[in-house]
Amino acid sequence: MTTMSITLNQQQQDVAVGINLREIIMLYELQEQGCVFAINNRVVPKSEWKTTQLNDGDAISLFQAIAGG
């Protein structure tokens, strides 16, 4: 398996070449509900998670909605 390096929430990870954002979410068991994912500071709509392929050096950030009062 050929791998590439990405950054996931400021942690370097080696993943398979050709992996998409949806697969990353499943692989690392990331929370989906109430979350927004950005790749290289660009928010990726949920409708594009399966089709957004990652590239070597990409930085993925996870933002969770916080309820307040």
Automatic annotation (TrEMBL):
SUPFAM superfamilies: MoaD/ThiS (SSF54285). This is Sulfur carrier protein ThiS. It comes from Vibrio marinisediminis.
